[in-house]
Amino acid sequence: MGPSSTSWRRASPRRRPDPLDSLRTLVDELPGDLAEHAFTHASWVEQRTDSYERLAFLGDVVLSLAISDHIYPRFPSWGAGRLTKLRAQAVSRLACAEVARELGVPDRLRERAPDGVGKNAEVLIGSDRILASVCEALIGAAYLAFGMKRVAPAVVEAFSEQVEDAIENPVDYKSLLQETLARRSELVAYRIVRASGPAHDRDFIAVAEVAGEEIGRGQGKTKKAAEQEAASQALERVEEEWPPEPGKAS
Questions:
Q1: pTM above 0.85, yes or no
Q2: Of 36, 46, 53, 60, which residue is the catalytic one?
């Protein structure tokens, strides 16, 4: 048997890189105080500022900027409306919750939960909204600890599957909202409340309304783009404030 055969037999298969490896490393290297805040729910502390909420506010901006900076040069022929829709889907609550689960956030929340809140912790861990917020908080904490130069590439890698899925399977938020409300015998209507800018560079603001009440607001370079963003915002509000009725499918 020649050297090449021996070399082949001794070679070990390479592990396929995990797109979350870089972000997971940053999370593992977080200073203790930032990590503690990022994994602490507001109901577990006396002061809300000791929870993940402020970090989530910051992380939301960092995540949005990192993904925007990634997709902007990648699609030079796309307009602002289409780029906005892609970004919104790629960093949506569902997308952030998926990344949070891959990062092991549920287990870390269980570990950080104070004594006596076991049931409460399990409810929180099962919420996409909570997991998404913790994911954003971790990104915000990593930004404070390591800076944008190191965090942005890790974020882009971690959300690479979400970006590709958004490209291949774009979501129609208006249809989703309509279907969700139909199960409650509600109807949504859209209204353009502002149109500004010159004819070649218009900017629109649309609101989504149910029974005359505003439930979502969006901005875009076209009326359709503004309405899609309004529908996306409305969907988040519907999920938070109008939970499924007992006995009915969500």
A1: no
A2: 60
